[in-house]
Amino acid sequence: MTWVLIALLVVPLVGALVVAFLRKDDKKAKLVALAFSLVELVLAVLLWTAYKPDGDRIQLAAGVDWIPAFGVRLSFGIDGIALVMIAVIALLIPLVIGAGWTEKLPAGRSQGGYLALILVQEAVTVAVFAATDVFLFYVLFEVMLIPMYFLIGGYGGARRQYAAVKFFLYSFLGGLIMLASAIGAYAMASDELGKGTFDWATLVKVVSDADATTQTWLFLGFFLAFAIKAPLVPFHTWLPDAAAEAPIGVTVIVVGILDKVGTFGMLRYLLPMFPTASKNLAPLVLVLAVAGVLYGSLLATGQRDMKRFLAYVSIAHFGFIALGIFSFTSQAGVGSVSYMLNHSISTGMLILVIGMVIARGGSSLISDYGGMSKVAPVLAGMLLLSGLTTLSLPGTNSFVSEFLVLIGSFPTQPVYTILATVGMVLAALYVLWLYQRIMTGPLRGDALLGAAAGPGAVGDPEKKTTIGDLSKREIAVLAPLVVIVLALGFFPQPVLDVITPTVGATLTEVGVTDPVSVQEGK
Amino acid sequence: MNLLVAQAQQFEAPEILYGAIAPVLIVLGAACVSVLLEALLPKHQRWAVQLVLSLVTLVAATGALIFYATSDRPEQGVATLAGAIAVDTPSLFLWGTLLVLAFGSILLIADRSVEPGGVFVAQAAIRPGTVQDRAQATKTGMQTEVFPLTLFALGGMMTFVASNDLLTMFIALEVLSLPLYLLCGLARRRRLLSQEAAVKYFLLGAFASAFFLYGVALLYGYAGSVKLSAIASAAAGTDRSDTLLFAGFGLLVVGLLFKAAVGPFHAWTPDVYQGAPTPVTAFMAACTKVAAFGGILRVLTVAFENTQWEWRGVLWGVAVVSMVIGAVLGLTQTDVKRMIAYSSVAHAGFLLIGTIALTPEGKTPGVSATMFYLLAYGFTTIAAFGIVSLVRNSDGEATHLSQWAGLAKRSPIVAGVFTFLLLALAGIPLTSGFIGKFVVFSAAIESGLTPLVVIALVASAVAAFFYLRVIVLMYFSDPAPDGPTVSVPGAFTTIAITLGAVVTLVLGLWPTFVLDWAGTGTFLS
């Protein structure tokens, strides 16, 4: 079944190539891109069935030599965490294409170019999660920036140039520092084994025995890259700009998928390769994580722009994920990984719904809307549902993850956990307040009534507005997400079964044992 | 009479391994022939004949090089011409690099389709701004002396990287420099800028040569010989004056760093890069860099390896200064040629890291890394300058960055290739620029230069900003209404750009075979 993984890498690239030649015909380009992304989804389902949760640490591994002089290989394979992330990418991309079906691109840009970049982004991101060679991971980590740079810079809003360059430079710098650490690890391997290698499993063995000082330096190099990517406060400032300026589908990819590379990297690289440093520096990460939860929540509450709001909500959620990872209990770890999945789904849905609001009003300012549920009740319902899953209401998917993170972290890190819990309260505040301002009350706001009504004008409900409810296409885009949100809310076990062994293996590599017995609680 | 005969009998003719030095002999010989052709041929035939001669020369020299390299030669290399020239694996690799890069440069120099008559002035002696000057700008003739001048410069560079003693090195330095000074002043357009560049380069270059020569003199005083190996063995026994050694070393290195455009000895670079005709800039940026760093590598590794703990700190600082100057001042540039010039100063800093990556056990991980970097950087630069020569308005090349706005809309292929080259200069993976940085930095970390590598990485990130700025301009800005047009390149320029871009891509994807060649041997000592 190794071919499935390879096909997952190749199919979007082929799709991108085909779509790139359809720049003249927008309609055909959209159909072809959608078809390729659906093939990718089918492949991801096959991958899920091929993965054995209680099998090897890395499964479906395949590889060829790339640069033998440095022991660099093109090697791919998946563990449970990578599997979940690849699945969620394959799920979100068709939805993004569907949601952007009628979106107008800036003058002179074609759908073909846009969709080709999206498919390239999909291929590279899948490859990042599947790479099992540290050098290859670094290469893809940086290459991943290029399509995104053109997506934000070419198709974004008014300040897109600024946002694109800022996004690129932040991630590029982080990546370069990681490269220094990776070379350091390589040098250790070549001292110890006589021949250098970048193979992940080998480096884990070599580097995890190093003394604490070396580990600390190497850890910091990798950590900076992941903290920028994830993003943790104070390395987060690129995200609000990128999220605000990118077209809405691209915002889904940045927030829902790209950022996960950061937390994925912490689990796959930081903990196993630098166990001593991870334990020593955990307080530092936890402080940043909790700061992210509180700071992100507070700033989300205060945002006037919906897309920036989304960015700060994500920053808060990444704080929770990092908290779970660095609490070193299997419950919190499983919670974090499922949070990575559920954040992609919940926030992805919230972004798509907000995109539909913006598509109607043509403005992303909250104050331009009001009382929208009168004219678009289904849209209002969707915003409410996606909002509730974002604030982790019991019965939705995110609740399971957030709850696992908090009860898993409490035994080892009670203080940080209690502080982070405040974030849950703030989440209710920012989500419900957003809903209230946009959807409830009398119909009002420039975007809904037209600028002629003047600022602050309260329209009467009889007044006709051109805003309509969700179309069939939009319902079709959101329906799968609604099903998944509720299904994973009540029945998360299939996902947890896949994740748990990998998290367990990761914690074994760190060399920690759970303080209280988890899973069923003896 | 008898005395003379007796003296002649005492004089032993040095043994010459013609096979080993054939590439250099071919290039210098062809340069002499080329000068004669310039004198004997009628004007209208010169361009075609000179071009064919130059290209055939390069191919023949490359053939001789390959023949010798694949023949049964001593692995550690040989010294010939009474030990003046060392033909070892690094020499051969650098010769090969110089020859291929010169091939690309000659193609750019020969192109006459982009600018009718070529980018070179018809008669360099005409004063700028006069009636004759305006008349010659519209004529289609050009000074075909550029071909012999380029060949002489190339011959000098090849001798420079193989010089086994400091005097040969000095002569080679002059042979490579003097034609370059002239070439800089030969631009058809913007004559004043071009002449200013030539004078500036000449004056500062003369100073640098003087420094170099003074350094050679002091080192001769120290070691009693100008041979690199003799200096190394003199420095091993420590009863002599260290003042002479290190003063000599300092002066010598200043001369070398000047040629390599390493900051803070870079002051000439932006002006000369901007003023010189673009094909000459490409030649200088690619080949002079290879030659200068080839020379630095040999001097540091062969003559001064024992004393590395004394000088390494100094060059450490110089590398930092160079990277910072290149990256920071590059941010403020508004002219694309000046921007690439500052980028080359930053790259010189990265290269210097490779040259000082020597380990105490006598291993030299930096040598092959630096040579790979030079090859990769040379090809990328030639292609980049090739593209610069295509973007033009009625006054010639449109080098001001604001004129590049929205270029991707008008000519997506040119913008696409230039973007790729800029990403390579920034060191993004899947380009040769990344592999070059990677090998240099891993060599440096191996020899304990980790803090320097971290500084270099930060400088790379800063430098990435100005490359990105050009990409932003080309792709995300609206075109200026009276913007430049992109000329359809003729065959020569197309080949040169394609060659550069393809090598940049191939070395980014499959660097193994070149890394293997670069890593097979060490300097003859």
UniProtKB/TrEMBL annotation, chain A:
Its main location: membrane. One of its GO terms (biological process) is ATP synthesis coupled electron transport. Residues 131-425 form the NADH:quinone oxidoreductase/Mrp antiporter transmembrane domain. The keyword Transmembrane applies. The chain crosses the membrane at residues 6-22, 31-51, 80-101, 113-131, 137-155, 167-189, 217-239, 246-269, 281-302, 309-328, 340-363, 375-395, 415-435, 475-492. It comes from Lentzea aerocolonigenes (Lechevalieria aerocolonigenes). Belongs to the complex I subunit 4 family. GO terms for molecular function: NADH dehydrogenase (ubiquinone) activity; NADH dehydrogenase activity; ubiquinone binding. This is NADH:ubiquinone oxidoreductase subunit M. Pfam families: Proton_antipo_M. InterPro entries: NADH_Q_OxRdtase_chainM/4, NADH_UbQ_OxRdtase, ND/Mrp_TM. The keyword Membrane applies. It is found in: Endomembrane system; Membrane. It is a multi-pass membrane protein.
From TrEMBL, chain B:
The keyword Manganese does not apply. It is an enzyme of class 7 (translocase). Residues 163-461 form the NADH:quinone oxidoreductase/Mrp antiporter transmembrane domain. InterPro entries: NADH-Q_OxRdtase_suN/2, ND/Mrp_TM. One of its GO terms (molecular function) is NADH dehydrogenase (quinone) (non-electrogenic) activity. Keywords: Cell membrane, Membrane, NAD, Quinone, Translocase, Transmembrane, Transmembrane helix, Transport, Ubiquinone. NDH-1 is composed of 14 different subunits. Subunits NuoA, H, J, K, L, M, N constitute the membrane sector of the complex. This is NADH-quinone oxidoreductase subunit N. It comes from Lentzea aerocolonigenes (Lechevalieria aerocolonigenes). The gene is nuoN.
